[in-house]
Fold each of these.
Amino acid sequence: NAGVMQNPRHLVRRRGQEARLRCSPMKGHSHVYWYRQLPEEGLKFMVYLQKENIIDESGMPKERFSAEFPKEGPSILRIQQVVRGDSAAYFCASSPTGDDGNTIYFGEGSWLTVV
Amino acid sequence: GNSVTQMEGPVTLSEEAFLTINCTYTATGYPSLFWYVQYPGEGLQLLLKATKADDKGSNKGFEATYRKETTSFHLEKGSVQVSDSAVYFCALPNDYKLSFGAGTTVTVRA
């Protein structure tokens, strides 16, 4: 059973470009979470999605960031017009349900560097 | 909402030393508690968890006991190895998402 798959693992973008990060949850998992880890900081929740629905995006910056989890295919975190401050590790996680107490499983992360 | 407060590092130890990382929580009810570990350049891996009060989670020589009287879930290992060098995160559910502590960087020297 493959784990949470993220790609690309490393991404370099120039300021103003777009970054697209992809996440395929574990088989059988319909709940996806995105977290961001800034250098020397902890993990900050960004968004929680179920298939075709955004449940909670309270941690998403108001501008330039968007996320989707279509009926078919991976979840996508999209960052438009990237700035240097977007440089971070972005982690996707999945769980079989959204109930409290369910373990969530993390992918290896996508490291974004904005130059 | 639910939250955790985690001992800040960094922590530097010699091999075979005893490791403790403190974690206390504030929560409604008795949610599950987790420790995750992040090795350099990698994602987070679940290290151990406890689902109810007085439960002890254990894995890879690490242990943590869910103590409701002190609202704590301290992580311990009796004899650390260089390979235990990593960042350790305490976490608990906050609604349907996990809230994490700030992370504790542990470096074990040979």
Amino acid sequence: ELKVEQNPLFLSMQEGKNYTIYCNYSTTSDRLYWYRQDPGKSLESLFVLLSNGAVKQEGRLMASLDTKARLSTLHITAAVHDLSATYFCAVDNDMRFGAGTRLTVKP
Amino acid sequence: DTGVSQDPRHKITKRGQNVTFRCDPISEHNRLYWYRQTLGQGPEFLTYFQNEAQLEKSRLLSDRFSAERPKGSFSTLEIQRTEQGDSAMYLCASSPPTVTYEQYFGPGTRLTVT
């Protein structure tokens, strides 16, 4: 059975700091997705990663994919309060989502 | 086109009643997905359509759940004989026919079964 594991599940960090969220998945997948969800809101697509070694960046967020290790990372650079949200990764086998990483950025 | 829309946004029903939700995807998006999300959890895949064909249905989906997309445009999700465990946010997403199949989510329908 496909498993998608994210860690950490909860992350509290100070503004200006860097951190990485990890997403491991158990079977091969053609696509890896990252989403953001604000409290009480729906999901917003951040990145779609298709191939081994793929790297995408938008603002302070950078996502990468290692298909051999079945690992994707979401790196946060110089965090700001507006990045506080829950971040999900998902793989397109059965569109399985991870449990999410709840990020809180404190001033 | 302003995005994926869902109706209603909130639904309160009594246990045992049937409910139906509607999703209107972004025009020209050929894929449409339904998910369920409970508090503190990631979305759980229910089913998806490519045009009018229902291509996949989660094994977790009981026979009380049914979805349709009769003309390949809007979709409906019906839950029969609702149970308290059905209380959740029901999310719809659509994706265009591109290699990424990037999904655009609607605002969701929050169901409360009393």
